[in-house]
Amino acid sequence: MPVSPALAPPQGDIWTPHAVRIVDVVQDTDDTRTYHVAFDDARQAARYAFRPGQFNMLYVPGAGEAAISISSRSRSGSPLLHTIRTVGNVTGALERMRVGDTFGLRGPFGSCWPLEELRGQHIIFITGGIGLAPLRPAIYHVLDHREDYGDVALLYGARTPDGLLYEGEYRDWIADGLRVQVTVDRADPRWAGYVGVVTLLLDRLPLSDPANTHVLCCGPEVMMHYTALSAFRQRIPAQNVWISMERNMNCAIGLCGHCQFGPSFLCKDGPVLRYDRVAPFLPVRGL
Amino acid sequence: MTADPGLIPIGGERRIPSDRLQDLIDLLRQDDYSVVGPTVDQEAIVYDEVTSVDQLPRGWTDEQGPGTYRLARREDDALFGYVVGPHSWKKYLFPPLSTLSAADRTEQGWEMRRVEEAPPKYAFLGVRACELAAIAVQDRVFAGGPYVDPIYSGRRQSAFLIAVNCTQAASTCFCTSMRTGPRCCTGFDLALTELPGEFVIEVGSDRGGTLLARLTTDACSARTLAAAEAARQQAVDQITRRMDTTDIRNVLLTQLEHPRWQETGERCLSCTNCTMVCPTCFCSTVEEVADLKTEHVERQRRWDSCFNPEFSYVHGGLVRNDIRSRYRQWLTHKLASWQDQFGTSGCVGCGRCITWCPVGIDLTEEVAALREKPACP
User: Fold this and answer.
1) Which of B146, B285, B319 has its CB closest to that of A256?
2) A2 touches chain B (CB under 8 A)
3) Which of A4, A181, B283, B296 has its CA 20 to 30 A from that of B11?
4) What ipTM was estimated for this complex?
């Protein structure tokens, strides 16, 4: 029986990683580093493009693959960056690598933040800890096209001041027209900012036009749940809330079944999802 | 206008005596097909390569129920007088183990390359209606989305499908509820109906019609055709198990906290049998297979199961850390969210998961229980 002939998949061969080489490593926090990588194959480097919110599968032969969001500017010619916290086998192996070392990369995969659709709208980025990494390409995009958007704010939380990512960039972001508010769970003697959960910042943020304000959120599921509740209290409509979710991404192309969340494959329907489309499933434990 | 003598048209029916089925196998082998069919091994009817009709389960049948499967002798010499065993054709189209890519360490760093297979050319002999439906489901999974699996689609495109209409049913069968059988209606190249001493062969594709035209066959008498119809009807009449599929997607996805999940989770052993025997379950994982010095590493895909605890591992923890949530994932995926993902149910009503469950969990019973409102909402 005929089946559809093998399509040319969006990235050519869907299973084979491309070799990338570490150009630079920046230590962000105790356990988190940002890796700047470049493709060995110049043709692949020229072909590669992603949209803010997408992720790559990084592959260390012998250790395996891990899904890592892309944390760089999506504009072509920008360095390709991944901010990685050491939690398992693959990220542990990456931690031991040095500038000049190679590993594999497949991607980009998944859905993206709806930045084209949000032109002319107000945007609130709200996130905690390493959740800022998948939002940074969206922040760059909005600041690179600042006149296309209304009010934009970043509400960011970390456990401690030492856990804040990309701290050196906030000053530039503010200068470029982003309102930045940062909070920590536990202050240290040098900290003079907010203390408390990040959703409190959303509760207190004055909004001029909630109906045209959109929330782009990345964090633990419980944090995203409370963010949505806070957004609703601020009269932001449910269809204006977008979240980025995480599950075991194994194949990244919807063929292996691991990343299911209710009806969604988070690798191809997500990771970025509209909140109201998955809201009934978010409170269900063990789904 | 005369019909092409080299082609029996789709829908055409011809007859061969049982002792000439070997000719069909020989012809397929001549055309470089590896013929896979039912054969008896370890007290079960399983699929394996066959070269002779003598390898088929002549005179055997299977008796099935929740958690039970036994072979028994028939009173006749039927070759296809059983229903379905633990194997399905998925092991040929979606192999339990396959190599995806390879990496070699060089002085310049890792070099990665694709590992391509020359797809084997299979002829499947004895595909039941529910199994044709299962193949159609996996076509959607592996070849119907934005990403096409090259291993599945390579094997699938060259496969020649010879269906066999059921003339009897097991107590675990419920294909009539899933509207997938027992009659083979579509998706085959040829379809056999077995009668005492003879087969009626129906053409389902041009490829099937061309092949059948090369066999010596007879016209079917009205009496033979009537006998074939009666034999097929017998399977319909023997099916007693039912599953109410009305609005099943919404019923299941709105009952995610039903107490039945906990009750069944306490019975379920999380052994993965249901997912291994299911002809549509497609979950897989990838393992690293390295030489001793980790200089040559291959990525091997192998079947996985949502019943394996580590299946839901994500940064240091398990999302589905109890059997209740794993069973719920399996059943709601199979019967409900599969519809969102692939536009079809993931269940074809073959009953394998009922038969091969060591504690006899029966999904038709589960669905009926989940339709009952919990006592304390």
Assistant:
1) B285
2) yes
3) A4
4) 0.92
Q: Does B297 lie at the interface with A, CB-CB under 8 angstroms?
A: yes
Q: Which residues of A touch B283 (CB under 8 A)?
A: 256-258
Three-state secondary-structure class, residue B254? coil
Q: Which of A28, A84, A78 is nearest to A58 (CA)?
A: A84
Rounded CA-CA distance B61/B49 in Å is: 20
Q: For B354-374, give the DSSP string.
A: HHT-TT---HHHHHHHHHSPP
Interface of B with A in 21-80 (CB under 8 A): none
Q: Which CATH number fits domain A18-109: 2.40.128.110, 2.60.40.650, 2.40.30.10, 3.30.1360.180?
A: 2.40.30.10
CB pairs under 8 A between A and B: 163
What is the pLDDT confidence band of residue A156, given thresholds at 50, 70 and 90? Answer: very high
- C-alpha A93 chain-centroid distance: 22
Question: What are A67-89's pLDDT values in tens digits?
Answer: 999 999 999 889 999 999 999 89
The verdict on a CB contact (< 8 Å) between A268 and B146 is: yes
Structural domain including B335 reads 248-281+306-371
Are A13 and B114 in contact (CB < 8 Å)? yes
- In terms of Cβ atoms closer than 10 Å to its own Cβ (0-12, 13-18, 19+), residue B102 is middle
Q: Read off the DSSP letter of residue A91.
A: H
Q: How far off is chain B from A89, nearest CA to CA, in Å?
A: 10
* Residues from chain A contacting residue B331 (CB–CB below 8 Å): none
The CATH number for A122-281, chosen from 3.30.420.40, 3.30.565.10, 3.40.50.11740, 3.40.50.80, is 3.40.50.80
Nearest to B314 among A17, A246, A287 (CB): A246
Residues ≥6 apart with Cβ < 8 Å to B201:
B13, B14, B15, B16, B190, B191, B192, B212, B217
pLDDT, tens digit (0-9, with 9 covering 90-100), for B91-137? 999 999 999 999 999 999 999 999 988 999 999 999 999 999 999 99
pTM here? 0.94
Q: Does A255 touch chain B (CB under 8 A)?
A: yes
CA distance B76 to chain A (A): 33
